[in-house]
Amino acid sequence: MTITAADIKIGMCIEMDGKTFLVVDFQHCKPGKGPAFVRSKLKNLENGRVLENTFSSVGQKIEQVRVERRPYQFTYEDDLGAHFMHTETFEEINIDRNLINNYDLITDGQIVEVMFHTEKESVLSAELPPIVDMEVIYTEPGIKGDTASTNSLKPATVNSATAKDGATIRVPLFINTGDRIRVDTRTREYYERIK
Questions:
Q1: Domains within the chain, CATH numbers bracketed
Q2: When comparing pLDDT for 175 and 147, which is higher?
């Protein structure tokens, strides 16, 4: 489907130069002189790189890509990549690790949202939920008196189905080995402790 620059929205997928991009951000600009234009940030869904692009609002045609998001559950990992099963049809697919942001934060049985190019029926990317529950499998104990501070952070290793020795994130000093915590998968930051 062909659209114009005025139709661009965040979350839309477009095709340029034979590659598929996700619109991360955009801004319509109308300078005092000259034609209006759209400044955009586009994420390449093949390699994850974000680039900035400017579209002319006058007459420039953009090819919109139809995508579909489907829920898949992580089952196992091998030399071919990560294997997932559709939660309703039980269809199994293999996804390249590079298509999954923060791949090492996947836990056993984790549900991810897989984005498919509907015409080619190919996987574009897979996203973890924004917040996941994890267990701290190792961290240095907090020093008595320092545990009330939430500004100071220390490294902690959390359980992971895809990282052999676990994934490392930064947590507040009061977190101990064995605690269950919530992690923001977009920023890899500690979110809260589960009581």
A1: 2-64 (2.30.30.30), 67-127 (2.40.50.140), 131-193 (2.40.50.140)
A2: 175
What pLDDT does residue 146 have?
Answer: 57
100 — phi, psi (to 5°)?
-115, 115
Q: What does the DSSP assignment read for 159-186?
A: --SSSTT-EEEEEETT--TT-EEEEETT
Structure tokens at 195: 């009581």
DSSP summary character for residue 97: G
Helix (H, G, I), strand (E, B), or coil: what is residue 111?
Answer: strand
Residue 78 tokens, joined: 């091998």
In the prediction, which pLDDT does 96 show? 85
How far the first Cα of the chain sits from its last, in Å, is 49
- 152 has pLDDT over 70: yes
Find out whether 32 and 50 touch, Cβ atoms under 8 Å: no
pLDDT tens digits, one per residue of 25-58: 999 888 888 888 889 999 888 777 889 999 887 7
What is the signed CA dihedral for 162, 163, 164, 169, rounded to 10 degrees? -140
Do the Cβ atoms of 72 and 131 come closer than 8 Å? no
Q: For residue 32, give the DSSP letter.
A: S
